[in-house]
Amino acid sequence: MVLFNALAGESLAMAFPSALCIFSLLALVQAQSESQQPKIQLRLAGNKRKHYEGRLEVFYNNEWGTICDDDFSILAAQVACRELGFLGAVSWSPSAKFGQGEGRIWLDNVHCTGREKSLAECPSNGFGVSDCRHSEDVGDHIIIFEIRIRPISSHLKRIPVTEGYVEIKERGKWRQICDEEWTPLNNRVVCGMYGFPGEKNYNNKVYKSLSMRKKKNYWGFSVNCTGNEAHLSSCRLGKPLELKRNGTCGRGLPVVVSCVPGRAFAPSSSTGFRKAYRPEQPLVRLRGGSNIGEGRVEVLKNGVWGTVCDDNWNLRAATIVCRELGFGSAKEALTGAKLGQGMGPVHMNEVECSGFEKSLTDCYFNNDALGCSHEEDAAVRCNIPAMGFQKRIRLSGGRNPYEGRVEVLTEKNGSLVWGTVCSENWGMVEAMVVCRQLGLGFASYAFQETWYWAGDASADNVVMSGVRCSGTEMSLPQCLHHGKHISCPKGGGRFAAGVSCSDSAPDLVLNAQLVEHTTYLEDRPMYALQCALEENCLSSTAKKNDHSSYRRLLRFSSQIHNVGRSDFRPKLGYHAWTWHECHRHYHSMEVFTHYDLLSLNGTKVAEGHKASFCLEDTQCDEGIQKRYVCANFGEQGITVGCWDTYRHDIDCQWIDITDVKPGDYIFQVVINPNYDVAESDYSNNIMKCKCRYDGYRIWMYHCHTGELQKKNCVEVLPGQFKSH
């Protein structure tokens, strides 16, 4: 029985994901046989742990059967692996290593030269002619190649590596690929798998001159891609090349690619990479991902962000998203809300892309999303360039690899040294950037004291101070920080910055439509507002002993959903909660939300705040059990898939607008405003509405989570979406 293992590759030493079997383990590949030869199909089956290995089975005469191991060789395994769509075989196994098959033993005494296109071309006893038992079934182990882009000497210091020779590692040696049958579509695939959205021309004279001087060591095959493959291993293997004794391949030269990085990864002359930038408003975005280049797919339509249903969602559509956002091809097209559920409308369903669209909004799709829920939100994981960010930062002294004192590598007096980060003003946003840079997901805590973590003593000196991040940065040096002149009053040591990371995080989102539909005005007497006054829920003009006056309150309900991948819990434990005698309840967070009324130029004209005296699961999605209730000093929090509702008729669920003049305003709600609790996405913690107040009535309209979109520049216009 022939047993297999499959071919794969890797960026700058990234192994192809086990041949990806984008054809799948049971994917059937029809043999390219001559008209007079039998037509067969192959598959890998049996008791296998990897999709690129297994018992080799043949489909012939409408029946699956096995192959006897008599006279079977690595050459026959190579032919079988290529016929299955892989690049080659690393080994084969006799004696039914992957379990005994059933039915016919179709082939016995198979003799291949290694250059055949199909096992059907190899001499054998003939189909069905065998004296073997199933204890002799063959199994294959398919080759896992490595692939790299090797830069020339003048490009060695460039980060990321965008240009160079494409080389494949075979039997321990790096080999170049002959460009005789190489096409621009192959370039597109190589650049995509290394995290680049496009490719460009290069100076051919430089490489031709270098090739003339050096001996070439070519790989023996050509590769033919359609341009839509996620990896070179998914491309079709071409015919074996006729290489000359002097190492040449006809008139061909070694393959060279030159890739175009996305804007966020474009190198700059001074630092090796650009500072963080404020991206132009896209029509597509990713949310909820724990690492760079991954997340739930959301699209903008008529000024409103919505999700994509996972019906028919595949790597081709996912790759369009990745390239549109400045990444390479997609590694995974995720379904079933694997990276969290969104809110609001589902804008796209049954997306169909050719693979060459500029934007997902150019693909055809069904705009009828009936039957699609947010449990079916589509997501992606994209290939990103190797920037070396993780080599410039480390966590030291923690109990596990996910926590510790932050230490960064910096240049000092001409040499690279490790040092600590000043913890002054160090917070959750900065910690999020550190965890992202390390590839450890989200921050769960930001520490301003780390005396309990004994870091590397040689790295005690503070080498970075004044760090202020926006949260979009890919690495800590991209954040604002002091230059050569370090300023850290408390010094390093016990006051060095630290973090704790997690692979999941909560994500709170306010139901904007509920706010819009429940807003009203109430004139309430001061004698009924004494507790609210004690909790600072009224404006400064309210007087404690003035029981005869009234306050005008802008009331509304809020419904806060946790759409993340872990529960939202207060930062402080029971022991640190504050008892408020007036309302007879505990505050687990002194400030949970800010309510503000702003002028059109952004000036605050009225404000309110809501202490989280009761974080609990008011309701949950079907099938999800409530975990948090406030009664009897219970655990507080919001479970994933649940929401906490603050009704319009409870204290402090308002803004005091007694002193506000009639006019047009912006109403704003911010959840978790001080970033006290880590979330996977802070950008959706803000909700804004336009409102008009005439002194007697108030109108609330155009409520949106996130920044209000300027319709004249980002609205999706008719014709931008193609639906069918």
Question: What can you see in these coordinates?
Answer:
This protein is mostly beta strands and 724 residues long. 9% of the residues lie in helices and 30% in strands. It is built from 8 helices and 44 strands. Strands 1, 3, 4, 5, 6, 7, 8 and 9 form an 8-stranded mixed beta sheet that branches. Strand 25 and strand 26 form a beta hairpin. The longest helix is centred in the middle third of the chain and has 11 residues. It is elongated and about 105 Å long. The relative contact order is 0.08. The N terminus and C terminus are likely disordered.
Explain the layout of strands and helices.
Blueprint (H helix, E strand, L loop, with lengths): L2 E3 L8 E2 L13 E2 L10 E5 L7 E8 L2 E5 L6 H10 L5 E5 L10 E4 L31 E4 L3 E5 L12 E8 L2 E4 L7 H10 L4 E2 L4 H10 L7 E4 L11 E5 L15 E5 L23 E4 L6 E8 L2 E5 L6 H10 L5 E5 L11 E7 L11 E3 L12 E4 L10 E5 L5 E10 L2 E7 L6 H11 L3 E6 L14 E3 L33 E5 L5 E3 L1 H7 L1 E6 L4 H5 L15 E6 L2 E5 L15 E3 L4 E3 L5 E6 L5 E7 L8 E2 L21 E5 L7 E3 L6 E9 L14 E8 L4 E8 L5 H4 L7 E2 L1
Parallel strand pairs: 6-8, 19-21, 22-44, 26-28
Antiparallel strand pairs: 1-5, 2-10, 3-4, 4-5, 5-6, 5-9, 7-9, 10-11, 11-12, 11-16, 13-16, 14-15, 17-18, 18-19, 18-23, 20-23, 21-22, 24-25, 25-26, 25-29, 27-29, 30-33, 31-32, 32-40, 33-39, 34-35, 36-37, 36-41, 38-39, 41-42, 42-43
EC number: 1.4.3.13
Catalytic activity: L-lysyl-[protein] + O2 + H2O = (S)-2-amino-6-oxohexanoyl-[protein] + H2O2 + NH4(+)
Protein name: Lysyl oxidase homolog
